Amino acid sequence: MKKLYKNIIVAILFGLAMVDSYATENGVDSAALGAEGFTAGALPPPGVYLLSYYQNYHANKMLDNQGDVSVPDFHVDSNALVTRLVWMTDKKILGGNLGFYAVQPFADLRISVAGMSDSNKGLGDLIFAPLLSWHSGNHHWATSIEGVFPTGDYDAPTIVKPIVANLGKNYYTVRPMFAYSYLGHGLDLSTKVSYSFNTENNDTNYQSGDYLAADYSFGYKVTPSLTFGAQGYVFKQLTDDESNYVDIGNKGQVIGVGPGIHYQPEPNWYLEGKYMKEIEVKNRPEGSATWMKFVWTF
């Protein structure tokens, strides 16, 4: 009985609320780490584009600040379909092409902690952003400010139900973003860097700290339509989490790394795949992520 009580307390402290299995409050956030890779900074010309992502994330460890296991019998498995609609206009601002995009994830989430479990499926939090993109020879770059809106399903953990597979975060995030690609001489050197500011989760009186997130890729064209390379991501939380307005630390970090492939036989569509293993993890789950990305021009 004593062991069961201890496990319940641990579960309450680490009960998860996630759409795609990433960090801050309870070890999660809304940054889709690893989603972007090859040509990340090379935004397309004016037109409407549909980007479809599939992600599987699996983890069986929750690690503390020393990188040691902090939660007993922890497992999470998330399958997500993410739709991004991009509209690049013919308008110019500061010499850059003006565009807009919206992102809507759909997730199937299963979690278990200390012998207790929950699952859920449905829509996650909506993302919307204006953007600007520039091109100069082999150099391409873009910038945007994302707004993450708490539209996904959310229930605060309770003693009766300490493990909740939430699809939304229940707080807003403002996220400035910068992306860059060098495309020339068969090389694809790309990155996307963002910084996230989070509001408080009013249901838990918890405010996740600010964090820096970056996707990166190093690729080489082996044929005109086929690129192989290494891809990954870096996550580093720079400010403490707050609970009831008190700093409690819990700064998360992770590095993801693995192989990637990009296939574009026609100018109006391409397919990209990657697998990334997580290392150097603190205060968040440790697992692996598989991404598939399909881009189509209307």
From TrEMBL:
It comes from the Bacteria. It holds the Pfam family Phenol_MetA_deg. Keywords: Signal. InterPro entries: FApF. Residues 1-23 form the signal peptide. This is Phenol degradation protein meta. It comes from Acinetobacter sichuanensis.
